[in-house]
Amino acid sequence: MTLLRLTDMTVLRQSCPVVDKASLKIGPGEVIGLIGPNGAGKTTLLRAALGLLPCQGHASLAEMPVAARARHAAWMPQAREIAWPVTVETLVMLGRVPHLAGGAKPSDADRAAVAGAIAAMGLAGFEMRRATELSGGEQARVLIARVLAQDAPLILADEPVAGLDPGHQITTMEVFARTAANGKSVLVSLHDLGLAARYCTRLILLHQGRVVADDRPDAVLTPENLADVFGISAHMERTAQGVIFQPLSVLS
Amino acid sequence: MKLFAVLSALVLVLFAASLLIGPAGFGAGDSLRALFGGQGEAVTLVMREIRLPRALLAVMVGVSLGLSGAALQGYLRNPLAEPGLIGVSGSAALGAVIALQTGMAAAFALALPLAALSGALIAVFLILALAGPRGGSLTLILAGIAISALAGALTSLTLNLSPNPFAVSEIVFWMMGSLADRSFSHVWLALPFMAVGWFLLLRLGRGLDALTLGEDAAAALGIRLDRLRLTMVLGVASSVGAATAVAGAIGFVGLVVPHLLRPFVGARPGALLWASALGGAAMVLTADIAVRLVLPDRDLQLGVLMAIVGAPLFLHLIYKTRRQL
Predict the structure, then answer these.
(1) A103: pLDDT confidence band, cut at 50, 70 and 90?
(2) How many whole angstroms separate alpha carbon A115 and alpha carbon A93?
(3) What is the interface pTM, i.e. ipTM, of the complex?
(4) Which residues of A touch B267 (CB under 8 A)?
(5) CATH number of the CATH domain containing B125
(6) Is A4-250 a CATH 3.30.200.20 domain?
(7) pTM of the model as a whole
(8) Cα distance between residue A105 and residue A121, in whole Å
(9) Of the four listed, A72, A143, B120, B176, which is most buried by Cβ atoms within 10 Å?
C-alpha cells in the first residue's frame, strides 16, 4: 500500500522551479527524514504534496478530495500558530475535525484519541491550561499532539522538533517511531542530522529543489553528499547505542 | 449552555423593556394589553407601529453586528477586526447619502435603505474581484481598506459639493445611526437579507475553529478556505449592509461584543458566533433604551451614544490586554 506518491512534481515560483521534478513513494511503517540546507525546497515540497500549493506533475494526496485527504494525511506547518487562548484540550481536539460530521459532538473515540495524543506528548495535566500561555516548546508539543490526534495513516511535519529541549526532541522522534511501528508513516523535515541518522528509517536529501538521494540514512549521509549539499564534513559512527552523527567543520 | 440561557434571558428582558419604555409613558399593563389585543386606540398604534418595530430592529441590527464582528475576528484571527473593515458599511452609507442628497429618499420611503443595500452589494463585488480567487486573508483586508477609504472619500465629496444645507444636516444626522421612527416596512426590508447573512455566518463555526491553527493547517484539516471566505464576505455584507441600510452606521458593537464574550466561551471562535449574536442584540437594545432615557427630548442618536460608551470600554480592554502581554 502506498501512502504518498509524487511523480515528477514541479513547483514554480514565477518561472523558477523551487521543487524540480521530485519523485518519491512512501509506504507504511516508515519514518522518513526530509533533509537539505535552507532554501532547498523542503517546505514547498511538503505543502505541494498536500495540495496546498499548485504544482505540475502528480501528487497522490493533492488529487484526493479535500475531506478524504484530511483523514488520510495530517499536516504540521512550520509556523506554530495558536491564534486564540483556547485550552490545550480544545486545541488538540481540532485534530478530530476531519472525523466529525458537521456540527457533531465529539464521540468517546474522539476523546480517547485526544487523551492518547496528549499522553504521548507528555502533556497530561496541561489539558485545561491555555495554549497561548505555554512556552514555545510546550506549544510545539501541543501542536504535535494535535497532529497525532488526527490519527491519519500519514503525518507530514515541517521541522517539528525545532526549539524543543533535547529530552523532548528524543521523545518526539520516539513517538514518530512508535507511530511507524503501528503501520503508519511519518515524513518529517529536519535540520538536526544527528536525530535524522538515529531515528529515521529513510532519508530524502533535497538540494536546489531536486531529490539528490533517497535511501537508508548511512547511504544518504555520505561524505560526498554532505560536502556537495551542505558543504560540511562530519563524523559518523555506528555504536552499540545506535548511530552517532556529529557535523565537524564547514568546507571551504 | 449556561451562557446561552443567560444571554437569551437578557435579550428577552431588554426586549420587553424596550417595548415598555418611551416618551408616551403608558403603564406596562396597558401597553401589553394594547400590543396583543388592542383595536386602533393611540396606545395600540404606538405599541404596534412604533415600539415593536423599533425593538425588533434593535435585536436584528445587534445580531447582525455582533455575529459579523465575531466571524471577521475569527477569520482574520485578529481581535481588532470589525464589520466595517471590509468596506460594506462605508459603501452602504455612501448609497444612503446619495439617496438623501439626490432627494430620492424624500420621494418614497424605502429609497434610502434600498440605495444603501445597493451600495453594500457593489462593495461586495468589488471586494471579491480585488481580493482574488485564492482564500487568503491579507488581500481581503487590503481590498476592504481600499474600498472603505474610497466610500469615505465619495461620501465626503457628496457633502462637500452639496448645495443644500438641509440635505447636509440630514445626512450628518443619518450617519450617526439611529433606530428612531422606523416602521415595519424597514423590518420587512432588512429581515430577508439579515436572515440570509445569519444563516451563512452561523455555518462558519467549524472552519473558524480550525483556523485557530493558521490557514495552512486549517486547509489540511479539510477546510475549503476559498469557500469559507466567500461565505463570510457574503454573510457579513448581507447582514451588515441591511443593518446599515435601516439604522445607519453603528460602530463598536461588532468590535466590543466578541471581545467581551470571548473569555466566556473559552476563546473558541465557533462558539463565539452565537454568543456574539445574542450579546450584540443585548447591547443595541440597551443603547436604544438608554438614548430614550438619558436625553428623551433631544433625540440623542444611537451611534453617538454607542461610540461614547464603546470607546472607553475598548480602551479598558486594550489596557487589560496590554497587561497580559
Answers:
(1) low
(2) 9
(3) 0.90
(4) 84-86, 130
(5) 1.10.3470.10
(6) no
(7) 0.90
(8) 24
(9) B120
